[in-house]
Write a structure and sequence with these properties.
The chain is α+β, with helices and mostly antiparallel strands. It is 46% helix and 20% strand. The longest helix has 14 residues, at 168-181.
């Protein structure tokens, strides 16, 4: 069975969830697993959508993983070459950190940063650095200063707003403004402050 049976899907977006999209093409609805960044950038349900697809074939299942950008698909395919990282974990990794930031962390040997991604322990992070450091393209982000680490509340606010459909870079920018203005309060206070900064 060929491992590249479906490489691209274009069709009508029937449904979308933070980890799943259903795309109808030629009268067939394809169930595609997606990352949170891809979910955030999807158009409204009912619109036409085009996804780059990685077809993962196992003896008992055939799974489709979809990406809006070829660069994200490429990163996913590099991640699943690392021992101990399967497609599901690769999607979690792509959902847990912006692609440019991750490439920067891998190339910069920043194991501590990688272990902040849910599901990534120190050993897996070390393998990611060891096996991928020289295989990843340089990104503009690798040369720019790394954003300061977020605390748990800030990460929750970021995640909540991205899940609501806001673009991650815009949320990160608004969040940094909100953290400066907020007196380090509760999730609710920071959420409202960030939302306010986003709507300016």
């Amino acid at each position: 069975m060929s491992r590249t049976m479906i490489a691209h899907l274009r069709g009508k977006l029937l449904a979308k969830h933070p980890n799943q999209a259903i795309v109808e093409t030629g009268g067939v609805g394809y169930d595609v697993t997606i990352s949170v960044p891809t979910f955030s950038d999807l158009p409204a349900v009912g619109s036409e959508v085009a996804l780059y697809i990685h077809t993962h074939v196992r003896e008992d299942a055939l799974a489709l993983y979809g990406f809006l950008r070829p660069s994200e698909k490429l990163l996913f395919e590099k991640l699943i070459t690392v021992s101990g990282i399967g497609p599901k974990l690769a999607i979690t990794i792509l959902s847990g950190m912006a692609a440019d930031e991750m490439v920067g962390a891998i190339r910069g040997n920043d194991v501590a940063k990688l272990t902040r991604i849910p599901g990534i322990g120190r050993k897996t992070a070390e393998r990611m650095v060891l096996e991928l450091r020289d295989k990843l393209p340089e990104t503009s982000a690798a040369a720019t200063p790394v954003a300061p680490a977020m605390n748990a509340t800030e990460e929750d606010v970021l995640s909540a707003l991205v899940n609501l459909g806001y673009q991650r870079p815009a949320v990160e920018k608004a969040l940094s403004v909100a953290t400066k203005n907020s007196k380090g309060g509760s999730f609710d206070a920071l959420f409202r402050e960030t939302l306010g900064a986003l709507s300016k």
